[in-house]
Prior knowledge:
4-stranded parallel sheet
Amino acid sequence: MTKTITRPETFLPTELVDGLDDPVPSEELAPSEEVAGKTGELLIICESGDLERTWATTILASSAAASGKPVSIFFTFWGFFPLVKPGIRITGTNWMQRMLSVMNRPGIDHAKLSKLNFLGMGPWMMGTLAKQHGVASPKELPEACMALGVEFMPCQMTMDMFGLKREDLIDEMGEPAGAATAIEIMTEAEASLFI
C-alpha cells in the first residue's frame, strides 16, 4: 500500500510558496565578490594545550592540507606548551613564567586531557585506542602537518608573556606573528576554526 504525502497549502504563506519552482537567475548563483576574494585558506587558532584539542587541531590541519588546502595554525596561550621541544622541562626567565611551566609541564608527551585525565591514565587509554584504530599519534601529527606544508605561526605576545624563546619550541615553527596578522589571515581565509 503506497501512501502519498502532500504538502499542506497553509504550511507557508502564499508569497513564499509562489515562485519556488521558478529557475534561479544565473547571476544569483555566481560567487559574490566577497567569496571570490577569499584565499581558500584554512586558519586554525589553537589556544588550548589539552591533549584532545591539540590532537584535533593537527588532525584537521593535516587532513585539510592533504586535500590541497593551504593551512595555517596560529598557536597562542596554552596552545604553545605541547610544541615545546622534548627534554625542556622549565621555560621562562622570571619566577612566575618558570612556575607556570612547572604547573603546566611543557611538551606533547605531557599533555593532559581536559576531562578524565585520571593522573595520566586517560591519555594512556586514548593513545592505546588510537593505535588500535590506526589514528596517528599527537607526536606524529605535527611532522605530518609540516610535510604537507601547514604553516605553524607562534603568537609573539604569548612568547613574550610566557618567556618562551624560539629555541624552546620545535624547529618547524614559523616566524612569530601578532594578533593583527592572525586577524588579517582570518578575514581573507575561506574558513577559520578556534580550538
